[in-house]
Amino acid sequence: MESCQRYVPVLLLLGFATLGIANDPAADQPGEPPQQEHLAIELDRPVSDQHIREPVPLVEVSGRAGTLPFFASDVVILIDHSTLAATASGIDVDEDGVVGRNRSSVTQWDPLAPPARLWTTDSGDTNHALQLRVARALVPRLAARQNRVGLASFTFRARTSGTSIVRLTEKAAVIVPVGEPDAVLAALEDFPAAQERRWTDLTSLLERGAELLDDATPDTEPARPRVIVLLSLGAPSAPDGIFWSSREAIVHSGEFAQRGIALWAIPLNTADPTFLAALTRGSGGNVLPLDRLDAQFGAPVPSELRPRELEIENVTMHARATSLRVFPDGRFDAVVPLEPGANTLEIRAVLADGHRETIRRLVHYEAGPAEQIP
Q1: DSSP β-bridge partners for residue 371
Q2: Out of 96-105, 339-348, 360-369, least confident range
Q3: Do 306 and 294 share a structural domain?
Q4: 354 φ, ψ to 5°?
């Protein structure tokens, strides 16, 4: 029961019913306090380390001083649809009073093994069931924060050939374009069951999520922030084994920052938080433990996101921005003078929640015909 007890506070935070063991002392042990959620500054232009060649030494600075993680964003939820999803989670997910266990007689990669639906003593307590329950709890929280939501699931199929295993690529099991959250909830109700001999092809799954974000129709100006949320069961195993597949996924996700995508990961079951931290760090995202979801999504969103104070300065030449405009939703734009060479731009704000934040952006200016070099 240890695994089940460990997740009791998590399930309660997600709005699940009491599981009948609330007096378990392990569930009452204090953990790390949840971090306070603050508004933040998000800069759209200029991009980091941008090289600018213009006849006039000016640059436009624009962004939003009042963003919250997972607020008014485009969010794609990625679900691991590998064989591990068919195994027992160790949690009474369906709350029938019985915690499902793996059948000891089943070998996951045995070509003569029974169908995956028979691998556990309770199909309602599998990792697949846990993923769907977490996703169903997550989508309404995203909807309440004015997000558009999409969904994707992807695996690598394995087929036995004699004594060897042949790996075959496969199309995504589920694809829901970024849009109204209700479409994702409907897809979760009809989500296909996990199957045997399926690998976790994480790099392909991440790219599928990025493609959904690229295909989303813009509906605001500036564009919505873009986020991927990965419900992770463990390290990737395809196409080249755990070590190389993990390394490939980390390298691939590190490129997301340049594409304007933040990757967040929610670890489930045996997922390695250290690997997930490395996977998300380069994109500007983070690991979001299940017991932090309530703190992450429970804080009320201010009715107006206009910052209390906002200053933009080229600190290299001690020159303030001109033509600064700030809007009720926190968006801002301004024009900042430049000098030849490197220029450090600084944006300082007292945000609507009273939180002070400062960010800097380095740009390089060269006088000449109009041209921008990424």
Answers
A1: 53
A2: 96-105
A3: no
A4: 90, -5
Lookup: tokens for 264 = 């967040």
- Judge if 172 and 250 occupy the same domain: yes
Written as one string, the DSSP assignment of 334-352 is EEEE--SEEEEEEEEEE-T
Q: Do 99 and 204 fall into the same domain? A: yes
Which residue, 39, 37, 45, is CA-closest to 312? Answer: 45
Using CA atoms, how far residue 227 sits from 11, 135, 365, in Å, is: 24, 15, 31
pLDDT in tens, 315-359: 999 999 999 998 877 889 999 999 999 999 999 998 877 888 899
**Cβ partners under 8 Å of residue 143, min gap 6:** 149, 181, 182
Number of H helices, E strands in the chain: 8, 18
| Section 293-322 average pLDDT | 82
DSSP letter, residue 279: H
Provide the token pair at 216. Answer: 């989303």
CB-based contacts of 367, cutoff 8 Å, min separation 6: 53, 54, 55, 57, 340
